[in-house]
Design brief:
27% of the residues are buried. The protein is built from one helix and 23 strands.
């Protein structure tokens, strides 16, 4: 009863491809992707110095489709710090994105599910748990800002500023610039100035845009080490009250590995991007080194295509 003839199989396949109305058959999970075009592009910008924005088409309605950058990373070493730049890739947060294991675009299959890139978890919501606590924020280029909280309430937050109380009133739905302790609006979605974001009347510690940088509460920032997944190493295991604004990204910094020579090698993954209008694009990272100088890192070459 469980056997089925080749003729029957062929008939089922033929019928399954027939819509009867001439409409285009939608992709199903596991279907091989087909492309209108595929091309390779060298992005001539050093992401160690600048953010590189890229669009799959010239007349894009959006500022960018994919953003390439490096994430500031600080590791305590001996008596000092080691400052590094972690290669990071983001998809426009208005889009959906999925990753599939594939050596090239022609081998990529339609994913089972999509999700939003650019998601992040807020740090725990706090009231008077911060009272009397020292909070360390690490700025984009390694500078550490330390603030001592004297009081946190629905009406006001009082910080210790050079031995004097600094009162913050009416903070609902506002961002606090940590450099000068003034209210500000982030200049862009990926603002590189860190803020405390207050949601409603409930203060929530948040590094705006969630770049995966640790915040240490009540202990020295020296112990804060961030791994390549954006999590703090040994977080909360030694009772030091570390918390993390952890960036959750479909791509993020999880797109590569290091070989035996410590060269950065892209993983065999293809990323499928779905725009709000339903158009699909796929891309793969080919290289992180300048095509004319293999010793110069920070330069992306990608292969991308529009899915039919």
């Amino acid at each position: 009863m469980r056997r089925i003839t080749l003729t029957a199989i062929a008939t089922i396949v033929a019928l399954s491809g027939c819509t009867g109305s001439g409409e285009k058959k939608a992709y199903e999970p596991g279907d091989i992707l087909h492309f209108e075009y595929v091309q390779d592009t060298f992005l001539n910008g050093d992401v160690k110095k600048d953010v590189v924005r890229f669009s799959f088409e010239e007349d894009s309605l959006y500022e960018y489709d994919v953003m390439f950058m490096t994430l500031p990373l600080v590791v305590k070493s001996g008596q000092g710090y080691i400052f590094a730049r972690e290669p990071f890739i983001l998809v426009n947060p208005l889009y959906e994105v999925a990753s599939v294991d594939a050596g090239d675009l022609k081998d990529a299959r339609f994913p089972g599910s999509f999700s939003r890139d650019s998601q992040f978890f807020y740090l725990e919501r706090v009231w008077d748990s911060l009272a009397g606590r020292e909070v360390y924020f690490r700025m984009p280029h390694g500078e550490v800002i330390s603030l001592k909280f004297q009081k946190v309430s629905p009406d006001e937050i009082i910080l210790d500023l050079d031995g004097e109380p600094f009162v913050i009133l009416g903070y609902e739905d506002k961002f606090l610039d940590l450099k000068n302790l003034t209210y500000s609006e982030p200049s862009s979605l990926y603002d590189t100035t860190y803020h405390i974001h207050f949601i409603g009347t409930l203060p929530t510690l948040n590094v705006y845009a969630g770049w995966g940088v640790a915040v240490s509460i009540g202990d020295s920032v020296d112990k804060v080490v961030v791994d390549r997944d954006g999590a703090v190493v040994h977080e909360n295991e030694d009772g030091d009250d570390f918390y993390t604004d952890r960036f959750i990204s479909v791509i993020g910094n999880g797109w590569y590995h290091l070989n035996e020579n410590h060269r950065l090698v892209p993983d065999e993954k293809v990323y499928i991007v779905r725009k709000p209008d339903g158009r699909l694009y796929a891309f793969r990272i080919l290289s992180y080194y300048h095509p004319e100088d293999s010793l110069r890192s920070g330069y992306f070459t990608i292969r991308y295509g529009k899915v039919k």
